[in-house]
Amino acid sequence: MRVTWTGTALTFRLDAEDEITGKASDDHPIKLAINSCSIGGVPDDAHPDLFALAAWTVVAPWTRKRIVFDRAISAEVAEELYAGWGVKAGPVGAEPRRAGSRLAISYSGGADSVAAAAIHPEAPFVHFRRVPHPRVPNRWSHYRSDVLAKLAARTGRELSTVTSDLEFTLAEPRPGYPEHHAVAAGALLLADQLDLGGLGFGYELGSRWLGGGRYLWRYTPDNPMWSPHGRWGRLFAAVGVHIVLPVGGVSEATTMRLALGSGLKDYVRWCLRGTNGPCRTCGKCLYKELIQAAVERRPLDTPITADQPVARKWLKKPPYGGMEMVQYGLARVPGIEKTLFAGTLDYFDVTEESTRWLDHCYPRALGEIPEPWRGEATAFMKEHVGLMAEDEIRKVETWGS
Ligand SMILES: [Zn+2]
Asked: What are residue 343's phi and psi, to 5 degrees?
């Protein structure tokens, strides 16, 4: 793989051993569409390791053996690329970047990132906004990235909006981040300017510790994407921008409760299909409605019926990603047996008591937060959430076994 930056426009050229079909770190199969993208709203003089990592979030799935950057990187970054991916990287020769002092939040406007923002009220936002690619037709015009960017601007927080077409480097399954970490590409290039030492993501308990979408129903202390000792965690640390998961210890029910109870509640938006609010008809809206109804202890309010395709994902036999939240909803939503989830009840024997662990914070997640921000996150969790007791910790650590 050969990587060239022209200003903040990236082009890459595959070597003979590279392939246009690949797998992201979550094992999802993906196919390359085009070998160029650009990032707007960022300076063009960031540390070379930041350029290297920003590029790696886009090209990692296609790279097999080696990568040649257009400027020298530090030996530390080269070592992590080899240790984590078996990829030889060069040229080597730059001094490593020293970590900055500030934490920024990678802000999507969804409940999880709003909750992360509420925990760190001084942290600036970096918002990734998708823009069209000049050479790829946009078949996803219903995806309203402009709405989210406007909402982010209204929060009153210090905000950097990064624009990028990097999602269009994917042909299949659809435009999206080649690696989940590509959402951070712009924030990385801003890291010197913003003096960043950490970047906060809204990944919650399910994504970090319960297998999320990849392992399904398995405790994942060594999650390669989000654990600090995993390959991505170590690579981010090597460029002086630690991965920080402020809500890594709490469930989506808790992030929902925190987000809707925060000063940012009017800006929460998890569905990008509607312009004046969530569309209410997509699979994500259904899943979030189940969680919100459970948190608000009210009947389910959805136009979706069990015979519709979007409902299928949650009605089939488990296990599936987000299952802990389905259990939580089944145990709490009044009249759930009269909704489209009636059939799902057959698979689970759940009660409020057996799902109460999802209302508390897994302490080990706080221990993973780098020291400069751990105190603030811990104090917040103790005051607004409460830490898990021993038997609740055991629920996390025996998940799926
Ligand atoms: Zn929707």
From this structure: -65, -35
